[in-house]
Every structure is written in structure tokens, then in C-alpha cells.
Design a protein that fits this description.
- By secondary structure, this protein is an alpha/beta fold.
- 31% of the residues lie in helices and 21% in strands.
- The protein contains seven helices and twelve strands.
- The relative contact order is 0.17.
Length: 243
């Protein structure tokens, strides 16, 4: 399960993800992508209303089933937003459409229920006052999870992630690929193995519930420190060119 998935290439991203899960977690019986669509992205809703080849509706509005790749896949709706405090927040397993730039407290209070709220690690995003706010929110709210990403090298430890892991709540892992050439190939290549029976009538709900239990093993390879730095430099260069 990739718990921080971006679909930059549409259906092609699903094919890539299925192949990456098979490669990095060959024992997987089904792959799962928890989407983190930004405010300007509506691909999941578009697919629900007009599914392309290989995608099928399920009994749950938040989930689609994909069967045209190397592995059957469950695609679960979700959002990525940036709060007024410049904190990145994922709302996974929901069709809510929250706005950017509201406070973290207001955004969490406005949730319609269900799904998971996750604060994902990011380069330079968990330091200073913003880092203190993240740590405080994770400590004070039992309904909030920490997220880890493939681009965080093992040589770059995070005390906040360590404390979150010791709290008894799982740290949710995902790829968090960037919207630039060459990075879209990572989707599905990093995440956690969730060993649980799936309710065929409520596959997304049963997986989201199982994901909240501790002890999941991660799969896939983290970026090396050198690779992560090259990726960040390329990302900042691409943003300057686009400005």
C-alpha cells in the first residue's frame, strides 16, 4: 500500500504502480494506492463518472478497482492540502474537498467523518515553528497520524517520526512523487505491507481500518542522501523555470 500517491500520468500511473508493487513486494495479492490529490486535481471524480478501460466502480464511493495491470489495484480517494500554518495535511479515504489555507484545527474539525488524517514528513517542513506545530498536533490528537516518504533518506532521522512510532500509532509510508519529469515512475514503489482480510463489500473501509493497527512492514527502497539531494535540486530548478 502506497499511502501517499500522486497520479501525474493518469491511467499510466496505475500501470506503473502495479509493476512497482510486484517488483518490490512480490507477495502482494492486491495493490492499494491512497491518493493525495491537490485542490486543482479532480481525476478520481472524473474516473468515477466515466471510468477508462480497466477501472471499475466498487460498492464504496471512495474506491475504484483496477484490473488492467500486473496486479489488481484498489484506488482510494484522498486529498492533500496546505494549511494556514504552511503544514501539509493528507485526508485519505474521503471525498471531502477542503480548502487550502484554513488552519489545521479548522480543517480537521470540518472533516465529515471517516478516513485518516496524516501529517507527512517533507524536506525542511518539520523544522522551526512549523516543526513544533507538527509535533504538538501529533502529540495532542489521537486521530492524527504521521507520514513518512520514500525521499527521506535513512541517514536523515526525524525525532518527530520516531516519537510518533513509539506512540503506538503506525507511521504511514508512501512515495510522494513530485510533479516533474522522471519522478512519476516511483508511484507504488514504497509503502507498507498490510496483512489483513479484505471485506469484499467494504474493501476500502476494511483496509483503512487495518492500516491504523501498528506493526506494518515497509517495502521498497528509500532514496539515498545523494539521490534525495539531486531530486530536491531538480524540483527547485523546475519550479523556478515554471515561475
Amino acid at each position: 500500500m502506497d499511502a501517499h500517491a500522486h497520479l501525474y500520468d493518469g491511467v499510466s500511473s496505475l500501470e506503473i504502480a502495479a509493476g512497482n508493487i510486484v517488483k518490490n513486494c512480490p507477495e502482494a495479492q492486491i495493490g492499494v494506492l491512497l491518493l493525495a490529490e491537490r485542490m486543482d486535481e479532480q481525476l478520481f471524480l472524473k474516473w468515477r463518472s466515466d471510468p477508462p478501460r480497466g477501472l471499475h466502480e466498487t460498492s464504496e464511493p471512495i474506491a475504484l478497482y483496477y484490473d488492467a495491470g500486473a496486479l489488481p489495484m484498489l484506488i482510494i480517494a484522498g486529498r492533500q492540502i496546505v494549511t494556514a500554518e504552511s503544514i501539509e495535511l493528507l485526508l485519505l479515504g474521503t471525498l471531502d474537498f477542503p480548502r487550502d489555507n484554513d488552519s489545521l484545527a479548522k480543517t480537521l474539525a470540518a472533516r465529515s467523518g471517516g478516513g485518516l488524517a496524516v501529517l507527512p514528513w517533507g524536506f525542511g517542513k518539520w523544522i522551526g515553528q512549523r516543526g513544533a506545530s507538527v509535533a504538538s498536533a501529533l502529540k495532542s490528537r489521537a486521530d492524527l497520524f504521521a507520514g513518512d516518504i520514500q525521499a527521506r533518506p535513512s541517514l536523515l532521522p526525524s525525532p518527530t517520526l520516531r516519537r510518533a512510532g513509539l506512540s503506538g500509532r503506525p507511521v504511514l509510508a508512501g512515495t510522494d512523487s513530485l510533479p516533474m519529469a522522471g519522478d512519476n515512475h516511483r508511484i507504488g514503489g514504497f509503502g507498507q505491507v498490510v496483512c489483513s482480510a479484505i471485506d469484499p463489500q467494504r474493501p476500502a473501509a476494511s483496509l483503512l481500518q487495518a492500516l491504523q493497527n501498528p506493526g506494518h512492514r515497509t517495502y521498497g527502497r528509500r532514496a539515498s542522501l545523494a539521490m534525495a539531494m539531486r531530486q530536491q535540486l531538480a524540483w527547485h530548478r523546475s519550479r523556478r523555470r515554471a515561475a
